[in-house]
């Protein structure tokens, strides 16, 4: 099992940037796929980006968001720029032993989430 703790959320204005961090610990997480998801009120949980911890391969469909990892600190970060009110959501860090997955059901370990609110 992998333990995940997110941080870095907050209230920002439209156009601002924000970086979220996910601290990972536990057993063999370095073989996992790490990902960020988000969930807005009344909506389904949505894939944001993922990174393979071992080789750094990234799946990042949103050009305003950048996922990265720091092997020394055991953290995965999500850099978000040009934020919009529609980016408002709870952002979750997640882990899976599987590769190249975007569905929440494929992820076995989740953090508690961090709230990001973007005001217009």
Note the topology.
Elements: E1 2-7, E2 10-13, E3 18-26, E4 33-39, E5 46-52, E6 58-59, E7 65-70, E8 75-80, E9 89-96, E10 109-110, E11 114-119
Short description:
This protein has about 120 residues and is mainly beta.
Task: Based on the model shown, name its key terms.
single chain, 120 residues, mainly beta, seven-stranded mixed sheet, four-stranded antiparallel sheet, 11 strands
Characterization of this structure:
The protein has 120 residues and is mainly beta. The chain has strands at residues 2-7, 10-13, 18-26, 33-39, 46-52, 58-59, 65-70, 75-80, 89-96, 109-110, 114-119. Strands 2, 4, 5, 6, 9, 10 and 11 form a seven-stranded mixed sheet that branches. A four-stranded antiparallel sheet has the order 1-3-8-7, with no helix packed on it. The mean pLDDT is 94.
Q: Class by helix and strand content?
A: mainly beta
The portion of residues forming beta strands comes to over 45%
- Count the DSSP helices: 0
Catalogue the unreliable spans. none
The major pleated sheet works out as: 7 strands, mixed
Q: Please, what is the average pLDDT?
A: 94
Helix content: under 10%
- The coarse silhouette is globular
Please provide the ordered H/E string of secondary-structure elements: EEEEEEEEEEE
End-to-end distance, in Å? Answer: 39 Å
> What is the CA-atom radius of gyration, in angstroms?
13 Å
Count of extended strands: 11
């Amino acid at each position: 099992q992998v333990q995940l703790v997110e941080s870095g959320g907050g209230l920002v204005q439209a156009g601002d940037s924000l970086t979220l961090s996910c601290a990972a610990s536990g057993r063999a997480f370095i073989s996992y796929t790490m990902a960020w998801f988000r969930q807005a009120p009344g909506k389904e949980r949505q894939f944001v980006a993922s990174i393979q911890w071992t080789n750094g391969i990234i799946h990042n469909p949103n050009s305003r968001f950048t996922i990265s990892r720091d092997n020394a600190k055991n953290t995965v970060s999500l850099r978000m720029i040009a934020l919009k009110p529609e980016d408002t959501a709870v952002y979750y860090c997640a882990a899976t032993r599987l590769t190249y997955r975007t569905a929440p059901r494929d992820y076995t370990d989740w953090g508690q989430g961090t709230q990001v609110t973007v005001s217009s």
